[in-house]
Automatic annotation (TrEMBL):
PROSITE patterns: AA_TRNA_LIGASE_II (PS50862). One of its GO terms (biological process) is asparaginyl-tRNA aminoacylation. Pfam families: tRNA-synt_2 (PF00152). This is Aminoacyl-transfer RNA synthetases class-II family profile domain-containing protein. Keywords: Aminoacyl-tRNA synthetase, ATP-binding, Ligase, Nucleotide-binding, Protein biosynthesis. Residues 113-334 form the Aminoacyl-transfer RNA synthetases class-II family profile domain. One of its GO terms (molecular function) is ATP binding. InterPro entries: Aa-tRNA-synt_II, aa-tRNA-synth_II, aa-tRNA-synth_II/BPL/LPL.
Length: 352
């Protein structure tokens, strides 16, 4: 058993993620914390590829610009797109590769995956980054197929982390018990509906955000749900308007979406769902979400001319590693921080 050690001094990050001091990056390069994090990124990268290929998925290259963003079109999202001009072209940095992966499924019908940066216009804090590494995949099949894929994926990641660096993590961070519990979980993770989740935590103030036409769980609600149900729990069929338009209807009345989030660690760590396969239902959903169809004309055309039932998910790798390391500040995970940079080019470029 790796689990608990009697180490009195745990390895900690040097906490220079927001520093513009000229020697901050040297501190990072000399820190054993970032040496460990670098090794864990490598484990995740390799294991993701091995697992995806074992399921028939292919890794496809996509550009780091897009004119069709995904997240801002849900009423429950606080994220904004990040506009840029590249070689005179007005475009966005990608907030997700989801649409590109759906496109890729038409070229690779067995599914495809990517590990690439995502950019979101929100203020970073202990649990959020606005630039992070996104592990995403789109698979042929339903929401249940996606959940089965992710169950196996995160357990494969946990097993690989333990095999390659379990003793080191236990010695430097004090425990790997939580990673061992995930790796050893033979049965599927617990799964409940969003309505059930609301009933389970709704007795405590501040756990459910209710906007009338849609509801969502707060971070407090996610954590209480894990305490009351299980440390690994899927929640599916959220209120339709709390998730983006491309998630398929979860019921005939269109009240819920065929989506699911996997909660562990700090809360939501994986988010995914099944896409609309009926073009008229897609258009109805766009209207309900107040989305201009012309801004997604190619997507609607693709769904009309090349129909497929696909489902996909995304997981922030930094959030997964934060859980592996039993750490409480995601800003200490990226190997090369982009926090608190000078808005304009400085006279001397002192950060990599």
């Amino acid at each position: 058993m790796l689990q608990q050690t009697q180490s009195l001094t745990l390895l900690k990050p040097p906490a220079v993620h927001s520093s513009n001091a000229p020697d901050a990056f040297v501190t990072v390069l000399r820190s054993p914390w970032y040496g460990l994090v670098a090794d864990l990124y490598d484990v995740v990268e390799r294991t993701t590829g091995h697992y995806a290929r074992s399921k028939g998925l292919k890794n496809l290259p996509f550009p780091l610009t897009t004119r069709t963003v995904t997240c801002p079109n849900a009423f429950g999202s606080d994220s904004e797109p990040v506009p840029v001009t590249v070689l005179g072209v007005d475009t966005f940095l990608p907030d997700s590769m989801q649409f590109a992966l759906e496109y890729g499924c038409r070229l690779s019908p067995g599914g495809c995956y990517s590990i690439l940066p995502s950019y979101r216009g929100e203020t970073p804090d202990e649990t959020h980054l606005n630039q992070y590494t996104h592990s995403e995949a789109e698979v042929p099949g339903s929401l249940d197929d996606m959940i089965s894929y992710v169950d196996g994926y995160v357990k494969a990641l946990a097993t690989a982390v333990l095999d390659e660096h379990g003793d080191r993590i236990a010695r430097l961070r004090g425990t790997t018990a939580h990673v061992e519990r995930m790796a050893a979980r033979g049965a599927p993770f617990e799964r409940i509906t969003f309505d059930q989740a609301v009933r389970i935590v709704g007795d405590v103030d501040g756990c459910v955000r209710d906007e009338g036409s849609w509801r969502s769980l707060t971070r407090k609600g996610e954590r209480l749900l894990m305490q009351r149900v299980d440390e690994f729990v899927w929640v599916d069929h959220f209120d339709l308007l709390s998730v983006p338009f491309y998630q398929a209807f979860g019921d005939d009345a269109g009240r819920t979406a065929r989506n699911a989030d996997l909660f562990f660690g700090l809360g939501e760590t994986v988010g995914g769902g099944e896409r609309h396969s009926d073009i008229e239902l897609l258009r109805k959903s766009m209207a309900l979400h107040d989305v201009n169809e012309q801004e997604y004309a190619w997507y609607v055309r693709m769904r009309k001319d090349l129909p497929m039932v696909t489902s996909g998910f995304g997981m922030g790798i930094e959030r997964f590693l934060m859980w592996v390391l039993s750490h409480d500040d995601i800003r200490d995970i990226p190997l090369m921080s982009r926090l608190n940079e000078h808005p304009a080019f400085p006279d001397a470029v002192t950060r990599p």
